[in-house]
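Quick note —
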Amino acid sequence: MFETPENDSISPALRALLELFATDLADVKFPDVDTAVLGESAAHVREKAEAVARAQAALDAARHALNESQESLLQKGQRALAYAKVFAEDDADLGAKLEAIHLPRPVRKGGPAQAEPVGATPGNDDNAPRRRGRPPKLRPVANLFTDGGNGQDGAQEEAAASLQS
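Predicted structure written out below.
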């Protein structure tokens, strides 16, 4: 007679009392309280709980629709702001007003952006993909101390050679 679904809106203690009145106390009648009255009250509570669940589902759907509408407006607003900034390139007053407007970035539908840890650098990760393309050419580094002098003679000779050519 009394169902016990997992998401029951009736507390376990009340369910135990209802079960007692359905079994051991089925024939007992107190003033205004018996098995039938308790059963009707329990059914009423479950109906109201179902109404709350439906209202909650409708509220969730309405919130989702609101979020989508806000996201759409934000995307259109960002596009409008970009167009208006280009339009106002010759109007300093309008440009200043437009620069004062800071719209948030849209939320990507793929989920939240993955943030890198604070100390992470792109080149230090062993699992990072290798850079594509040819490696940069290595230029020979002139040693300033090759001929035992201070290196000014070699630099002067290179400067003179570059001026002559």
